[in-house]
Amino acid sequence: MELKLPKENTKPSDRYESSHFINRELSWLEFNHRVLEESRDKNNPLFERLKFLAIVTSNLDEFFMIRVASLKDQVNAGYEKPDPSGLTPKRQLKQISIRVHQMVKDQYNTFNKSLMPLLKKEGFHLLTRDQVSSEQHAFLEDYFKKLIYPVLTPMAVDQSRPFPLILNRSLNIAMLVREKPKEKPTFATVQVPSMMPRLVEFPSAEKGRCFIMLEEIMMLFAHRLFSSHRVLAASPYRITRNADLSIEEEEAKDLLMEIEKSIKRRRWGAAIRLEVDAGMEATLLELLQKALEIHKGEVYPIKGPLDLSFLMKTDKLEGFDHLKFERATPTMPEAFMGEESIFSIISREDRLLHHPYDSFEPVVRFVQEAAADPSVLAIKQTLYRVSGDSPIIKALAEAAEAGKQVTVLVEVMARFDEENNILWAKKLEQAGCHVIYGLVGLKTHSKIILVVRKEEGRIKRYLHLGTGNYNDSTAKLYTDMGLLTCNEYYGAEASAFFNMLTGYSQPPDLYKLAVAPLNLRKTFNRYIRREAEHARNGKKAQIIAQMNSLVDSQIITELYDASRAGVEIKLLVRGICCLRSGIPEVSENIEVRSIVGRFLEHPRIYYFHNDGEKNVYLSSADWMTRNLDRRIELMFEIEERALKKRMEEILDIMFSDTQKTRILGKDGLYKRIDCRGKIKLNAQEYLCGQAKEQSKAAKRKEASQKVGEPIMSSEELLK
């Protein structure tokens, strides 16, 4: 199906200069720098600092595979049009290279000079092959013979054997080998097995525990791979390839087959980055650059282990719990305690969930109860990313097998999750679900579950609307929000929304739900302009918003116009922000903050003061062009007074954070808040504590009711 999309001018106003906008890619790099800063924050436990370093690496991998790759494609195609900040693709690549080289240098300085000495003090010794004792050498030799050697496939390069295809993001060891003293050395390469543990523990020669990298063991015994040759040099390297592979949807007869082909092609796209050990022999580096067609600026010499993403797995090491965050257990909201039907709970009033402080279990339970309830006739859901062993997928399959009408709109083009999504989409089809693979040209990014239930001879609709994916695993790591409701107006519009997705109907006028790409942009524009009009009329005007990214130049222009009219604008943008705050007579009424902490901030919240009416909305959409114009997104209002008040409280807590907040300056750089004279507040930790106290209060209330004791209010208990 193809939707008739509204025509709207998204070109930014000519009165705002390119200097008023920050380049998207450079802004993203500043976000990654904020992640890097968390690895330096002494208030974070040591192993958590290691994890932040790992996240920096993973983030850069994806950045190169998608964003840098796209810019390189533009340069190769001769595209020279500047972005809103005035930078051409070629200039962007140059500035990215300068910034990333410095970032990688800072990253490894943090690892080598700050974290490694601290690890050593804690009895965690990471050794190189030159540091092992003779006893340890014997242990490692046996380990190599029995576990590593049988898996390896060394490949030599000569006239009869061309340079092999090196897998994207794989770690490899380049070697120079020679059979006879006067012969010209031969290049050889061997891949470090990705299925084996990268960090190997072995007997300690001193107090504490000893570890060594897998590639270090391989280089220690590299001579065993070439029994008749001498290994002259051995050094690790890693390449990143272009993974931004487009799919011609309209020409693809079978979308699933086309996506599966694309996943395979991603492994062999053009090389765009080469990471090498800083001590790599010059001849080896020259051979790699030539074979991979990599120029000097795309080479990143590393002083330390390549690919620090392995540090994420240190979390599973036993014996170091004192160096990790205290385990945060999501709490069950009071309303969902006990065995009452979830439909009865929702029928009484709308329920707001704030993950990971609130458990994700009520959302899972919503689908599971719907699957088992004989009164439920149909379940409809959109799915973007789910966990590998998703209880929601199991429940949907069980519902279909029980004869219910189950419709699932799967976004198989969710980047880097395509393979996983295809796998479970086929399982749902086999169970009898109606599976729809998105709309041509539009990704389905909305988060909605519709349950149709027969009650007392009539149909009643129950809904979950959210800001995050239906992923029970990431719901413990990402902050997100969701609404459970049986509001009949929301239900009717949800039905119309699904009919639009699954059929050919254009949706009727929607009053409760705003949908991208149909009317969400217009809705945002209208609300921003309304605040500007209030300001011009001398009324209080305020916009508060939290999102992942702010990129869309037309929305930024609307915000600049509102700022000039006198609207107070407070933005909490975790990642990319192309708006430049604090510019006199342009954005002096706009403040931009970013929080990078223990949890990944993921909700999209939009608050408009509206002359005291105070409208609060949740959405699956960021203020990005792709969300507003090229994705199916939803926005819905929080209408119940108590829930609206709770949303205002949450926003107030987030904007009161002094520990993990950085504020954007007009120079495009972020600085921490000066805490002198201010109350120290970590918003995420505060919300964790608040959820725990409310849970304790609920349990005390339940216990007191059982024994007939007087019931104290939650406010009294919190005091």
Outline the fold blueprint.
Blueprint: H1 24-40, H2 46-76, H3 89-121, E1 124-127, H4 134-148, E2 155-157, E3 171-178, E4 186-191, E5 199-202, E6 209-213, H5 214-220, E7 230-241, H6 255-266, E8 271-277, H7 282-292, E9 299-302, H8 342-348, E10 351-355, H9 361-372, E11 376-383, H10 391-401, E12 405-410, H11 418-431, E13 434-436, E14 443-444, E15 448-455, E16 458-466, E17 478-485, H12 488-502, E18 513-516, H13 520-536, E19 542-547, H14 553-565, E20 568-573, E21 590-595, E22 600-601, E23 604-608, E24 615-619, H15 625-629, E25 631-637, H16 641-655, E26 661-664, E27 670-672, H17 683-707, H18 714-718
Parallel strand pairs: 1-6, 8-9, 11-12, 12-13, 14-25, 17-22, 19-20, 20-21
Antiparallel strand pairs: 2-4, 3-4, 3-7, 5-6, 7-8, 10-17, 11-15, 15-16, 16-17, 18-25, 19-23, 21-26, 23-24, 24-25, 26-27
Helix pairs in contact: 1-2, 1-3, 2-3, 9-10, 10-11, 13-14, 16-17
Output the CATH homologous superfamily of the largest domain: Polyphosphate kinase middle domain
Percent helix range: 25-40%
Strand content: 15-25%
Please tell me the total number of domains. 4
What value does the average pLDDT take? Answer: 89
What is the makeup of the main sheet?
Answer: 10 strands, mixed
What is the CATH architecture annotation of the largest domain? 2-Layer Sandwich
Count of strand segments? 27
State the helix count.
18
**Terminal CA distance:** 56 Å
Output the structural class: alpha/beta
Enumerate the spans where pLDDT stays under 50 for 5 or more consecutive residues: 247-253, 711-719
Computed over alpha carbons, the radius of gyration is 28 Å
CATH class of the largest domain, named Alpha Beta
Kindly identify the CATH topology of the largest domain: polyphosphate kinase like
